[in-house]
Each structure stands twice: as structure tokens, then as C-alpha cells.
Amino acid sequence: MATDRETAAFIAEVMEDAGAVSTRAMFGEYALYLDGKVIALICDDTLFLKATPGALALVAEPEFGPPYPGARPHLIGSALLDEPEALVPLARAIWDDLPAPKPKKPRGARKTG
């Protein structure tokens, strides 16, 4: 079951106080970006946050689940959508724990030789 576009837009709107939030459609589901880093996935209309040490320190009773078969367990964050005051610091903690994204290679650059 694919995620509705409206669900992804709603989740991004709830998290807008965390920083520059955007979503990107991938295989019928969505990746959730915060200031250029993927901090969560939205699969089957459910928010799956990356389970980083900073995030785990902020959640009293974390609930885990895989966003798709074979994936690492993520924090299930759908219950926090009604509590943006808890979700925003959690998103920032995840962002702080993640490394900077690797620079993208320019398109069209080919090796000669």
C-alpha cells in the first residue's frame, strides 16, 4: 500500500518548525528530509524515524518497526504527530546525530581515457 501524498504533506507541515522540511517520493513511499538529511521514511501512511542515540534518549517508551521488509527497525513516530512540541526536538536530535550528506557528483561528468 503506497502512502498518500496528503499524508506526506501533513507530516512535513507538522514538522516545519524543526527547519527546512521536504519530502521526496520513492517507490510509492516518501523520504523525509530535514535541512538536507534524510531523518525519516513515510511508508504505508506511517512515520518511521531513524533510531539514533539522540532520538532514543528523548523517547520514554519507544515503539520500533521496519518501514519495509528487510529494513532496520525505526522508531514509529505516528503517535507524535499530535505532539509537535515533542516531535520537533526529536527530529533535531536525529539530524544532529547524522553525518553531513555526501556531495553529489555533477551530472554529465564522464571519464575520458
Could you characterize what this model shows?
This protein has a 6-stranded antiparallel beta sheet. The chain has helices at residues 5-14, 53-58, 84-97, and strands at residues 21-26, 29-34, 37-43, 46-49, 64-65, 74-76. A hairpin with an 8-residue loop joins strand 5 and strand 6 (74-76). The protein has 113 residues and is α+β, with helices and mostly antiparallel strands. The chain is built from 3 helices and 6 strands. It has a single domain, classed as Yope Regulator, Chain: A (2-Layer Sandwich).
Which descriptors apply to this entry?
single chain, 113 residues, alpha+beta, Yope Regulator, Chain: A, 6-stranded antiparallel sheet
User: What is the typical, i.e. mean, pLDDT?
Assistant: 91
Q: CATH topology, what is it called?
A: Yope Regulator, Chain: A
**Uncertain spans:** none
- Read across the widest sheet, the strand sequence of neighbours is 1-2-3-4-6-5
How many domains in all? 1
**What CATH first level would be assigned?**
Alpha Beta
* Quaternary status: single chain
Total helical segments: 3
Fraction in beta strands? 15-25%
In terms of structural class, how would the helical and strand content be classed? alpha+beta
Which architecture would the CATH scheme give at its second level? 2-Layer Sandwich
Strand/helix succession: HEEEEHEEH
Q: Sheet with the most strands?
A: 6 strands, antiparallel
CATH superfamily: YgaC/TfoX-N like chaperone
Rg computed from alpha carbons, rounded to a whole number of angstroms = 15 Å
The N- and C-terminal alpha carbons lie at a distance of: 47 Å
Helix content: 25-40%
Globular, elongated, flat, extended or rod-shaped: what is the shape?
Answer: globular
According to DSSP, the number of beta strands is 6
